[in-house]
Amino acid sequence: MSKHVYKKIEIVGSSPVSVDDAIKSGIEKASESVHNMQWFEVGEIRGDIEEGKVAFVQVTMKVGFTVEG
């Protein structure tokens, strides 16, 4: 079994639809510039309330990826 080195970064995904959509959009956007992503950890969930309804959701995540080389 070979040894692996990982790095973690923090990203924030956002969505007017749902927490799930905020996670997916954050991961999909990050994958455009971060390669070898392996996992994510949700740290915070927050959102805006307008007229008594959830208007927007933000999800802070740590994303782990394999360091190349």
Short description:
Helix content is 17%, strand content 55%. The chain contains one helix and three strands; from the N terminus they run E-H-E-E.
Structural summary, described in words:
This protein is an alpha+beta fold and 69 residues long. The protein has one domain: Dodecin subunit-like. Helix content is 17%, strand content 55%. The chain has one helix and three strands. A three-stranded antiparallel β-sheet has the order 1-3-2. A hairpin with a 2-residue loop joins strand 2 (37-50) and strand 3 (53-66). The longest helix is centred in the middle third of the chain and has 12 residues, at 19-30. The protein is elongated, with a radius of gyration of 14 Å. The two termini are 16 Å apart. The relative contact order is 0.35.
